[in-house]
Design goal:
The complex is a heterodimer of chains A (433) and B (307).
Chain A lengths: L12 E4 L2 E4 L2 E4 L1 E5 L2 E6 L7 E3 L4 E4 L1 E6 L12 H10 L2 E6 L10 H11 L5 E6 L13 H5 L5 E2 L9 H14 L2 E4 L4 H4 L4 E2 L2 H6 L3 E2 L1 H18 L3 E3 L5 H12 L4 E5 L1 H5 L21 H13 L4 E2 L8 H4 L16 H8 L4 H16 L17 E11 L18 E11 L2 E5 L2 E2 L2
Parallel strand pairs in A: 1-6, 2-7, 8-9, 9-10, 10-11, 11-12, 12-15, 13-14, 15-16, 16-17
Antiparallel strand pairs in A: 1-4, 2-3, 4-5, 7-18, 18-19, 19-20, 20-21
Helix pairs in contact in A: 4-7, 7-8, 8-10
Chain B lengths: L10 H19 L13 E6 L5 H12 L3 E6 L11 H10 L4 E6 L4 H8 L3 E7 L5 H15 L6 E5 L6 H12 L3 E5 L14 E4 L2 H4 L5 E4 L15 H8 L3 H4 L7 E3 L12 H4 L6 H20 L8
Helix pairs in contact in B: 1-5, 1-11, 2-11, 5-6, 5-11
Classes of the chains: A alpha/beta (433), B alpha/beta (307).
Chain lengths: 433, 307
């Protein structure tokens, strides 16, 4: 494979030799890109500028429903720019930035600040607004004012909305705006003081546990509230077999619920916490083997709609604290796709549905992201070499932080190129800016 | 063995090795000048992030009898108060040239983390609810003084197992040496899962006492009644305290143990603590010799004995 040449944003080029995979199917085709849009999809297209895709999958850019970009407030851990670079290298052309920044993204001005920072980022940066003021769970945030800026998802992520009446009101109000509320499911009273999954490992390690039921109680409640209000609910980072079963049952009843799962919840168990390495501390916590199996099955059978990274950068000094004092969270953007390819055994279209067009629909950005790859569509694409193997090296990640739980792990499948609105932001696995 | 973080680091053979060595250090402690030059030139630092009187004094005495130099890192007056991180603190201390760190911390796992950051030997002197291996070793030694062997002994551990590092280490050590352990506690004070623990569990103390060779009472912290784990200490004493009446259920030669500090009148009646079968002060006395054995194994020429 010859090295691909960098291009100016307004230039035209052909992505040549790949297999185009989108929601409509899979075919051998070249993709001609002109002025930020797909100009043609056909066999044997030619142009003087070529991006090599031989042996690769050409897919709609990935969409992450759950990214912590940390800006404003925690720029030592990540910025919009560094996080977007990590996203682009991971194959993402859009991310939804979570609102648990400092201060929280709970008003139009705060949302606009992140959108402005995102305007020059290496991926499309969308914002999830907070449901309640300051994410304190007490008073409804100005959802309409934020929706007017294009916000389509709202969540107090990091915390669940504890007050059932307030959550009901929020759902009712959101219904009129046509936006989706996303819940971090955690009954705080039951989870209180916990730092890992409650079970055999927490008991042995003497670490206070968070029972699966702390998550499941809020899934149960919000399914009920979705039924009561008729408003959709999106469940963030489901981690337990019980949660998955309830979401499956709710969908079978025709309720408008959607769900995501994070890569660490289908690849790692709470046994990883045995050495008290805080890189494995995350919320919801790593669960047991039966939960991991249930999440995998739910990704395969469609109960879970999306793989979302819950990319949560933390500075080294924050993680070098006692296990019960270190903040929860792990990196995800640069490893999610490869983990899916390596671990899930799904066919490529099914996996890409979970990583691209299904999350794009939940994020309300289907028009621009998630394909299909057809003439006239915005050129948000990723080119994946599904056979390339690589080893995760924390020091080589683009994120400002190093808290990946996969250090040293060999993965199969690597992003080769990422195209954002026609601009090749990643070429041959190198960020172009 | 480089560190002593968990009883599991020793295994049954390692525990036996420590107990054998302890015999010789008990002999040293009985001399008119109870001091040997075994660790001359070695420097040991006490890194206690949590208050402790008896454990620190016990380690200090053990180190002095081995002629080691000791330094105390006092958290309350140190840079920790100024916001220094755990890692910076231990790396700073290690830079002074030390051989061992004896660590106590309120958070489970801290000795494991420190052992990743330093070359010095790390001894766990209690981490959160997790482990307190030297306590378990001195408990084994104390039982052996009375009963030769732990094999086949029925040992009841009574009380707040959930929050007890002593209980976790004792279960590992007692069962490694062949004892049959029963945990006796209200369900709120048991760990949420006992999967993989080779123990029996009951909440009926009266049924356990007549058959027990050893009754090991755990300290009941007053705060537990404010966390809805117990209705009241009074009710705890009524149901799980070793009261005078209940002590009559014990076999004549049954041993009563407690890691201290005791709440007389809560988990143990004052009179029971003073019975001849209560070996609570022997536990403290043996603690010094056991810790001499541990420090000698880690830092002395004994380091080769348990590879």
């Amino acid at each position: 494979m010859s090295p691909s040449q960098p291009f100016a944003i307004d230039s035209a080029y052909v992505i040549k030799g790949g297999t185009v995979v989108d929601a409509t199917g899979s075919r051998q085709a070249d993709v001609l890109v002109k002025k930020g849009r797909i100009a043609a999809v056909d066999k044997a297209l030619d142009h003087k500028h070529v991006i090599d895709a031989a042996g690769c999958i050409v897919a709609p850019g990935l969409v992450d429903l759950h990214t912590h970009l940390r800006e404003p407030g925690r720029e030592e851990a990540e910025t919009v720019e560094s996080g977007s670079r990590a996203a682009a290298l991971g194959g993402y052309t859009a991310v939804v930035a979570m609102p648990n920044t400092e201060p929280a993204l709970d008003n139009a001005a705060a949302v606009r600040q992140v959108l402005d920072l995102g305007a020059t980022a290496l991926c499309d940066v969308r914002v999830a607004g907070a449901i309640t003021v300051g994410r304190r769970g007490e008073q409804l945030a100005p959802l309409g004012e934020m929706a007017a800026l294009g916000v389509r998802l709202f969540t107090d992520d990091g915390n669940g909305v504890q007050d059932s009446r307030l959550m009901r009101r929020a759902l009712e109000y959101a219904g009129a705006l046509g936006v989706t509320l996303a819940q971090h499911c955690e009954d705080e009273a039951l989870a209180s003081g916990g730092h890992m999954n409650e079970g055999a490992w927490s008991s042995r390690l003497g670490v206070p546990g968070i029972p699966a039921e702390a998550e499941e109680l809020m899934v149960l409640r919000d399914i009920a509230l979705s039924r009561l209000t008729g408003t959709p609910v999106h469940f963030l980072h489901l981690s337990t077999a019980g949660s998955v079963a309830m979401v499956g049952a709710a969908k079978a009843q025709g309720l408008r619920v959607t769900a995501e799962a994070a890569p660490h919840h289908f690849t790692l168990t709470d046994a990883e916490c045995a050495g008290y390495d805080t890189v494995f501390k995350v919320n919801p916590p790593l669960r047991g083997e039966a939960d991991v199996a249930a999440v995998r099955a739910a990704l395969a059978d469609g109960t879970i709609d999306a793989i979302a990274t819950d990319h949560a950068p933390h500075a080294l000094e924050a993680k070098e604290q006692p296990f019960d004092q270190a903040p929860p969270g792990m990196l995800g953007l640069e490893t999610a796709l490869a983990l899916g390819l390596t671990e899930l055994g799904l066919d490529h279209q099914r996996l890409l549905a979970l990583l691209s067009w299904q999350p794009a629909r939940i994020a309300g950005i289907s028009g621009e992201h998630g394909g299909p790859i057809v003439e006239g569509a915005s050129a948000n694409l990723t080119v994946i070499d599904p056979a390339a193997t690589w080893v995760v090296e924390p020091e080589h990640l683009a994120s400002r932080s190093r808290n990946t739980p996969y250090a040293g792990r060999k993965l199969t499948g690597k992003v080769r190129h990422t195209i954002l609105r026609g601009e090749p932001v990643v070429l041959d696995a190198e960020a172009q800016r | 063995m480089k560190h002593l973080l968990s009883v599991n680091d020793l295994g049954a053979d390692g525990i036996e090795e420590v107990l054998r060595l302890t015999d010789s250090f008990v002999e040293v402690s009985a001399r008119s000048i109870p001091k040997v030059p075994a660790l001359r030139g070695k420097t040991i630092v006490w890194l206690f992030y949590e208050d402790s009187t008896r454990t620190r004094l016990s380690f200090e005495t053990a180190a002095k009898r081995l002629s080691a130099d000791t330094m105390n890192f006092s958290v309350s007056t140190s840079s920790v108060k100024k916001g220094e991180s755990l890692r910076d603190t231990v790396e700073t201390i290690e830079a002074m040239g030390i051989d061992a760190l004896v660590v106590r911390h309120a958070s489970a796992g801290v000795p494991w983390q420190i052992s990743q950051w330093v070359d010095a030997a790390v001894v766990n002197a209690g981490d959160g609810w997790h482990e307190h291996p030297t306590q378990a070793l001195l408990d084994c030694y104390t039982i052996r003084q009375r009963r030769q062997s732990l094999h086949g002994l029925r040992i009841a551990i009574v009380g707040d197992v959930k929050h007890s590092r002593v209980a976790r280490s004792d279960v590992l050590a007692f069962t490694a040496l062949g004892a049959e352990v029963t945990l006796v506690a209200p369900p709120t004070l048991l760990p949420p899962s006992l999967e993989g623990w080779p123990v029996d569990v009951t909440s009926d103390l009266d049924a356990v006492l007549p058959k027990a060779d050893v009754v090991y009472l755990l300290r009941m912290q007053k705060e537990r009644q404010h966390e809805s784990l117990l209705p009241s200490l009074r009710e705890y004493t009524a149901l799980w305290g070793l009261t005078r009446d209940r002590a009559r259920l014990l076999a004549d030669d049954a041993i009563v143990m407690h890691p201290g500090p005791m709440n007389r009148g809560v988990e143990i009646a004052a009179e029971v603590a003073d019975l001849p079968n209560a070996v609570i002060t022997q536990q403290v006395a043996n603690g010094v010799a056991v810790r001499m054995a541990v420090l000698y194994l880690l830092l002395g020429s004994g380091a080769e004995l348990v590879a």
